[in-house]
Amino acid sequence: GQQLNQSPQSMFIQEGEDVSMNCTSSSIFNTWLWYKQDPGEGPVLLIALYKAGELTSNGRLTAQFGITRKDSFLNISASIPSDVGIYFCAGRPFGNEKLTFGTGTRLTIIP
Amino acid sequence: GAVVSQHPSRVICKSGTSVKIECRSLDFQATTMFWYRQFPKQSLMLMATSNEGSKATYEQGVEKDKFLINHASLTLSTLTVTSAHPEDSSFYICSAMDSPYGYTFGSGTRLTVV
């Protein structure tokens, strides 16, 4: 099945650093969602975006819905140990309930 | 908030046997649920869409006779892996639509076929 291109694939950062990751698609999406997945668990929703150009924050997390509708980014400011995990973007096209997931970004915090 | 309960969380079965995984929406009704499979260090791949009261729709390449889906009520969908083989070992995750644009995921089921 189709997957969205997500980058970077992995990140190794120090606690307190800011993080930025993005997702791109060859097709247009009506909704962009960002999830975090811990080992052995299901994804948990972080931020949902429903309109092109929309910029939404959730605590230290900020995400934007690209104006072309083909991309989205997620920023995490002042990273803390509990931010470790895998982050996935997911897109939903207009008129379709199915989500397409990105390839994931694995975030590791170096002590 | 919306909660989706998935059971079992882990299951080990012998090759050739069948395994049933349950996905329940605890505090909302879900006419549509989704089943995903996730291999180690990979993303979630949609297997099928489960529709209450009707047949599931499967993604290309997913064998409907091997992965039986039943969505008999507005709060329960089940995935049965029939005649399981080691290559079916994976992490299976369900999700349910809790609103027109909202998706809540279960905690996943780790299936190991020996």
Question: What would you note in describing this structure?
Answer:
The complex is a heterodimer of chains A (about 110) and B (about 110). Chain A has about 110 residues and is mostly beta strands. Chain A is about 0% helix and about 50% strand. Chain A has strands spanning about 5, 10-15, 20-25, 30-35, 45-50, 55-60, 60-65, 70-75, 85-90, 100, 105-110. Chain A starts with a strand and ends with a strand. Chain B is built from no helices and eleven strands. With about 110 residues, chain B is mostly beta strands. Helix content of chain B is about 0%, strand content about 55%. In chain B, the strands form two sheets. In chain B, strands 2, 4, 5, 6, 9, 10 and 11 form a seven-stranded mixed beta sheet that branches. In chain B, strands 1-3-8-7 form a four-stranded antiparallel beta sheet, with no helix packed on it. Classes of the chains: A mainly beta (about 110), B mainly beta (about 110).
Features:
heterodimer, A: 111 residues, mainly beta, B: mainly beta, four-stranded antiparallel beta sheet
Nutshell version of this structure?
With 111 residues, chain A is mainly beta. Chain A is 0% helix and 52% strand.
Continuous helix count of chain A? 0
Number of helices, where a helix is a run of at least 4 consecutive DSSP H or I residues of chain B: 0
Radius of gyration of chain A, whole Å:
13 Å
| Assembly state (oligomeric) | heterodimer
Name the beta content range of chain B.
Answer: over 45%
Biggest sheet architecture of chain B: 7 strands, mixed
How would you spell out the order of helices and strands of chain B? EEEEEEEEEEE
Approximate helicity band of chain B: under 10%
Element layout with pairings:
The complex is a heterodimer of chains A (111) and B (114).
Chain A: E1 5-7, E2 10-14, E3 19-24, E4 31-37, E5 44-49, E6 55-58, E7 61-65, E8 71-76, E9 85-92, E10 100-101, E11 105-110
Parallel strand pairs in A: 2-11
Antiparallel strand pairs in A: 1-3, 3-8, 4-5, 4-9, 6-7, 7-8, 9-10, 9-11
Chain B: E1 4-7, E2 10-13, E3 19-25, E4 32-38, E5 45-51, E6 57-58, E7 67-73, E8 76-81, E9 90-99, E10 102-105, E11 109-113
Parallel strand pairs in B: 2-11
Antiparallel strand pairs in B: 1-3, 3-8, 4-5, 4-9, 5-6, 7-8, 9-10, 9-11
